[in-house]
Amino acid sequence: MRTHFMLAMVATLVTVAACSSKPAPPPLSGGGKTVDAATAGAVTGRAIFTGTPPPAEALRMGTDAACLQSAGSNTRSDAVLIGSNGALQNVFVYVKDGLDPAYSFALPTAPVVMDQRGCRYAPRIFGVRAGQPVEIVNGDATIHNVHALPMANREFNMGEPVQGMRMTRTFTVPEVMVRFKCDVHGWMTAYVGVMAHPFFAVTNAEGVFDIKGLPPGTYTIGAWHEKFGTREAHITIGEHVTQAVSFSFSTK
Asked: Which domain holds residue 41?
């Protein structure tokens, strides 16, 4: 009975989203200029959290026995992951401004894969190029629905009731950030940064990021964290120069 109810609920949500969404405009195209690898530089750095880390929220997965079985009874949110020496994971770092719009970049044809595993999205934070496919997989033995909530792109809300199901969707215009949620499991959240260029990264468990292949120039580097907000840094990269940048986040 519960499964039938969830299927009906997801079908209703899909219908509502399909009626309310608006077609997105086509992807932006560059001017045909290419980056000279002989002069390209890089930006590298680290994101840190200062102060007392907030306690990790307990996820109440008891509403779905399959989630409880796969994730365990004492599962904590991965919205905030702080390692040794304040290393802050899952910060989306990207070139926000300063890139010559005359540049064009080859669009990857391979999809970025987002799995639903242990009743959580994996990865939670990721980046994709505008026009590059995103493949969304149900790795769990329970029903999920994938509800994307963009502001500039097309909203979608599609159910994946069976383990192993896959769907592919494409965001067509740059947008930082697009939230995903599951209307069946309210704790499930992910975010994607949709970019017109390849100059973005997500900090790892050591809080480190690395963005390579930037043409010389002056840039604004943006950093975004889902709980701690945004930061910016302004840098100038010379020919074959690697510029170091640090971002500091806190609860204040």
From this structure: 2-249
